[in-house]
Write a structure and sequence with these properties.
The chain is an alpha+beta fold and 235 residues long. It has helices at residues 43-57, 127-132, 134-142, 164-174, 186-196; strands spanning 5-8, 14-19, 75-77, 89-92, 99-103, 107-113, 120-125, 147-151, 179-180, 183-184, 201-204, 228-234. Helix content is 22%, strand content 23%.
Length: 235
């Protein structure tokens, strides 16, 4: 079975794609392209799914860089094959260092440098990460040059009810339009932060992971679910 992907055609030597839940070997609530090993899925299935994803984008799975996500604002420079450091972002200027960030409602974000030399950052951006500065850290890691970004599928304002503390924090930072009642518009907040950080152009894939059965959703599936993500590298 082929691996269906939502590809971002960023100008430059980049290969970037957002995965869905199809095309893998996992079963049950993790069917089928679960990329997360910190679930109740069999680890060997998740590793095979990662291999398939890498193959689909022309990347070497042995060189795949990941980090341990903690809903914070740390962005690490990617090292080929390294997967243990704590952080919610990775960046590289080196060719053929594929990076992968995992999500299951949080937003997968890719930022690419259009001029001034190749540079690519991938971010896992949830409600806490956006407030704590994960986007700004990703932009700072890439430094000078015109930057472009793509925001992949994540939970939409239709489904993302949050508590008063988070709602108040977003109203205080972004204004009242980003919280409708107690429902948070994470898509719009991410675009706002990217633009405020100096990103020249932002593309959004406004597909709600909680609404669409094509994606894993922590909220919809009450925590028993897999992980999709964003994969990318400098070609």
């Amino acid at each position: 079975m082929s691996v269906p992907l939502l590809r971002w055609d960023a100008p430059g030597p980049y290969r970037v794609a957002f995965s869905m839940r199809h095309g893998g070997v996992s079963v049950g609530p993790y069917e089928s392209l679960n990329l997360g090993v910190l679930t109740e899925d069999r680890p060997e299935n998740a590793h095979e799914n990662r291999r398939r994803l890498c193959e689909a984008v022309g990347a070497d799975a042995e060189r795949l860089a990941m980090n341990r996500q903690v809903h914070a604002a740390t962005v690490n420079q990617a090292v080929a094959g390294e997967r243990g450091r704590e952080g919610d972002g990775l960046w590289t200027e080196d060719p053929d260092v594929p990076m992968l960030k995992l999500t299951a409602d949080c937003l997968p974000i890719a930022i690419a440098r259009r001029n001034g030399g190749a540079g690519l950052a991938l971010l896992h951006a949830g409600r806490l990460g956006l407030l704590e500065g994960i986007v700004e850290a990703g932009v700072a890691a890439l430094g000078a040059g015109e930057l472009l970004a793509a925001v992949g599928p994540g939970i939409g304002p239709c489904c993302y009810e949050v508590g008063d503390e988070i709602a108040d924090a977003y109203r205080a930072r972004f204004g009242p339009t980003f919280v409708r009642g107690r429902n948070l518009d994470l898509w719009a907040a991410a675009e706002r932060v990217l633009c405020d950080a100096g990103v020249a152009s932002v593309e959004r894939i406004d597909v709600c992971t909680a609404c669409s059965e094509d994606f894993f959703s922590h909220r919809r599936d009450k925590g028993v679910t897999g992980r999709q993500g964003v994969i990318g590298y400098v070609a």
